[in-house]
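Dear support,

I submitted the protein below through the web form. The confirmation email said the job was done, but the results page showed an empty box. After a refresh the structure appeared. I'm attaching both so you can tell me whether what I see now is the final result or a partial one.
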Amino acid sequence: MNIAILANRPPDPAAKGDQIDLYHKLNSLLGEGHQIHLILVSFKAIKYSHPNPLLSVETIRLSFFGVFLFLFQNIFNKRIPFQVALFFSRSAQRVLSQKLMDISPDCIFINGSRLGLLALGNSYPLLTNFIDSLSLNFHRRALIEKNLFLKFFLKVEERRLFLYENYLAKNSIASWFVSNVDKKFLKLNSAFITPVGVDKVSSRTNLIRESNTIIFTGNMNYRPNLDAVYFFIENIWPLIKKGLPSVKFLIVGRMPPSSLSKYVKRHPSVYVLGEVVSLSEYLNKASVAVAPMVSGSGMQLKILESMRCGTPIVCTRLGIGDIQADRLSSIFIADTPGKFAESVISLLTNHDLWSTISNYNINYIHKHHSRAYINQLFLKQFSSINI
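What the results page shows now:
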């Protein structure tokens, strides 16, 4: 099959969630012998190479003027979200239409809903990999926002995104989400659910855990991750510190803002490590992982990464999302600061409980979220589509 893939970031197995997801879906399709034309839409030139001769890569450059003009013209258009307008211009749409005429693909695979507007209106069948729901993300952010102006903006954007995502789904012959929670929020009757997959830990021999070490992982330029860290430090950390004075908290993830580094200086035993060479190395050393999410959408990769390393995790109900593990014996769910702190302390002080959960999580990930299993699930779903 001849497939055009539209994305705003290049595939990357070690970058952001949409890039990781695209990397594995792209390689799964190439492995089946499909001809892939990867079209990257960006304000800057993107260099991406791949050894497979079945893959070609092109870039469509967005102009700031073109995007600003479209944004200005549609500022009061209730069906054009700002999140979408920022990745659209008339000139880019014309360039894409010409490229599609040259390629003549059997279908267009859109990675992330933001680029959907560029592809709508073409005669080629659309497949949309939503990954998660942007409107759900904005809905949850609006709930916790204290600034009244920003809260109003988030609610307006949420409504626009909800209408847009539904329209895009209805005009696609197939859609994908990583979580059923996002699909239900959009009130969609049909869409594929392809959960997040994780790679197998290469070795677990000679592991030495650091006692009383709590870890949070994630890209720190992603607002929901910052919300989670600030919520944890302000509301939960003092309770844990009171019960276990020797405990320390590590924040691991690329691109932490300088404001976060300044903020943690006021809190003893809290460390911002930024990007590290091996995330697994730090997860394997930590005693407990936390995901105190108060905003965001989709399926939290940080939870699955912790589980595959055998590091017990405590998270909020919002953080757990659609992960189907036995929540009575694998994941501590706590939605209040007191309950959250109590759960963390229990795992840090009860070795038998820690070991039971650690072993369960490793087996669960191997069975339900291994990369091989998820890739095969996606290919099965893709092959069932009548194009």
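Response: this is the final, complete result; the empty box was a page-load delay. The longest strand covers residues 35-42.
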